[in-house]
Specification:
By secondary structure, the protein is α+β, with helices and mostly antiparallel strands. It contains one helix and seven strands. It has two domains: 9-38; 44-142, Immunoglobulin-like, CATH 2.60.40. The strands form two sheets. A four-stranded antiparallel beta sheet has the order 1-2-6-4, with no helix packed on it.
């Protein structure tokens, strides 16, 4: 007849084992991150929209600028490029003034900047209420 011996771990052994597993996991993660090539992509993510446009209208676009980097950046410029439009409304009907200045964005944070938007009074009526495809671009440097 076999006897089962109860196996009990002391609280200290359990705690030390948990610390060792956590430490090994952190070392493995650090090695994995060190082996990764530098991230290719955009450090800034820009988004915004404008509505209620009609010929002669002056308004603003509030652009949300997000810093994806793990360090602070200084935003120097934000501009907009207008994409292809349907016929009957030229791209030149909309004027967007770029942001130029110096704004600090913390690591993994976002800020908002305002861009002036004008729909020219000479714009055809076909531009009224039209959806303009906007591409935001920006320039920032590491602080």
């Amino acid at each position: 007849m076999r006897h089962r011996v109860p196996f009990r771990l002391s609280a200290q052994v359990v705690a030390l084992t948990a610390i060792a597993v956590m430490t090994l996991g952190q070392v493995a993660q650090a090695r994995h991150e060190a082996a990764k090539p530098p991230r290719r992509g955009r450090a800034l993510v820009l988004s915004g929209k404008v509505g209620h446009l009609f010929p002669g209208r002056h308004t603003v676009i509030v652009v949300r600028v997000r810093n994806r980097e793990p360090f602070p950046m200084r935003l120097k410029w934000v501009g907009v490029r207008i994409g292809k439009l349907r016929t009957g409304c030229p791209k030149t009907a909309l004027v967007v003034k770029p942001f130029k200045g110096k704004r600090r964005i913390g690591a993994h944070r976002f800020i908002r900047v305002r861009l002036k938007v004008i729909m020219r009074a000479s714009a055809p009526n076909g531009c009224q209420g039209m959806r303009f495809p906007l591409r935001f671009r920006g320039k920032a440097v590491r602080v």
